[in-house]
Amino acid sequence: MEGSGLRHHNAIVVLGPTASGKTRVGVHLAHGLGGEILSADSRQVYLGCDLGSGKDLHEYSYSGTAIPYHLIDLVTLETEYSVFDFQRDFFHAYEQILARAALPVIVGGTGLYLDAVLRGYRMVEAPINAALRNELVPYSDEALRTRLHQLRPNQHNTTDLVERERMVRAIEIAECERTRIPEPTPRLNAFLIGLQWPRAVLRKRIEARLKQRMRAGLADEVKHLHEAGVSWERLDRLGLEYRAVSQLLRGGHPSERAMIDRLTIDIGQFAKRQETWFRRMERQGHTIHWIQGDDAEAALALVRALE
User: What does pTM read for this prediction?
Assistant: First the structure.
């Protein structure tokens, strides 16, 4: 990290809504500052989810130089990867990067994952509790939500309040946390860079990227995942592209064109939710240095100005 200008910071974060160009900017920064990239994306951890999650692995090079990246292609879709799993894997990779005297460059738009490492959620590894699961079997979904709220009044992950299986697991973890003290996490003092686009421009970028991914074989990717044993329900839980394309393959959309139109709207709404999360981060005390578009040179200049 020597010469990076980050005397008072131990990481850079590049955040922004989907299709904003985070990977391009992150790669540019990693190349210019001697860094390695840590992906903070909840779907890129899954093997086989390539086009739909936007891994774009070809982007991890600069002028012919490969840029090291981490936290991509970690598990199969048989695993429900959690924020606990991410935090554990993140800090393991993070400490290895520091040991190599390289700069961790965190790139991603999954707000919960970013929050978990920036704020250092205190979590424990909770084993399966068969007795508790049996106890919860007769509970209605509303009763499960009530119990989870009692255990965790400030529940971070709203998905855990919707899907029954995730509610049960969240209760299991919360009960475990009552008797086990979580290990402290390394303290991140990160310099945050955010990418902003005018909403109309971002929508065009979303639509263009979606059309490009369909041409590149997104429907084939989803079809092959299902043929390999991944259930339609599991694909639905991946959300957005995977849900929409799996519905298309099952006849749930009148045409590919109709699906693209609907999905463009849905991804745009998702981008708004991401932006809301980033504003929430700012209200909680994080300073985000915003740049317009994916101006990688502007991002690098922000860091250089710290020298």
Answer: 0.84
